[in-house]
Amino acid sequence: MKKLLNTLFVTTADTYLALDGENVVVKKDGDVLKRYPLHNLEAICTFGYVGASPALMGHCAERNVALTFMTQSGRFLARVTGEDRGNVLLRKEQYRISDDDTRSVKAARNFVFGKVYNSKWILERATRDYPLRLDVTQLKRITASLSETLKLVRDVKNLDSLRGMEGTAAAQYFSAFDDLILQQKDIFVFRGRSKRPPTDCVNALLSFGYTLLAHETRSALETVGLDPYVGFMHRDRPGRASLALDIMEELRGVYADRLVLSLINKKMVNSNGFLTKENGAVVMNPDARKQVLTAWQEKKQETIVHPYLQEKISWGLVPYAQALLLARYIRGDLDEYPPFLWK
Predict the structure, then answer these.
(1) pTM for this structure?
(2) What order do you get walking across the sheet with 23-28 strand by strand?
(3) Cα–Cα dist 15/31, whole Å
(4) Is 273 helix (H, G, I), strand (E, B) or coil?
């Protein structure tokens, strides 16, 4: 199993990244703010218009340390990577599956099965942990419906039907999401998913969490030799990491949504961390972003037993484990892709 290294998140405005020996140096106005040894890093992720020296970019490419540039709000801009080391035979088989709807749906339905299963158990666990604070009857109705969807997903034969089931299940899950917010209800209200742009504090947190998860998942797929831009459920679109979005489906709830709920319910974020722009978009300020990134890094270090591999791994390695299992399935070593089923 791959060793979990660190991701360096740079959120300080107007900084410049440079190389000094085997260290990445964070500078501002010519002064050195911090330095970090590159051998401990697997990725560097910068927010805002941060510059980086050509020497650092070249060194990161040689060492396979992904250097990613984001906007302040967390929108992906660009990514610097080294020589493509993907397994050509593995990728050619991936492309064949993607071009064949019948083969694509066999893999895609397991992504959706994992998503619906995990959504169901997030709600089930909430009814168990907070039976006196939630409308248990209503939540049980939703989880019963999600259970029926799971049966349908296993037998679905075409991608359009699968996407319809996924959309319906997501709508049912998010219809109960506001009930899972137990603290700071005057600030954090969820009335539905809004993406571009997020129009409330909860959606701003969710979108940021999904951006971080997409970064992790894309890196994991590249590490095992797959092309993150050629998916099975999400179809080809220029600039979209479709396969990363496929794998993300089963991880969104257990990885990002639960972290967002924890941040809100433990009062680790508050109204002071958000700004509303003239167009109605709600964004996080640098302090809130740092709090989320700190919680994200701590989450990655937590240990779980992988439900399929039955090995103890950190949460940070879950995207890599799923990418590895997907590669084994594509090579023909597994009869089916085993989704990550959390309970």
Answers:
(1) 0.80
(2) 31-37, 23-28, 16-20, 51-52
(3) 10
(4) helix
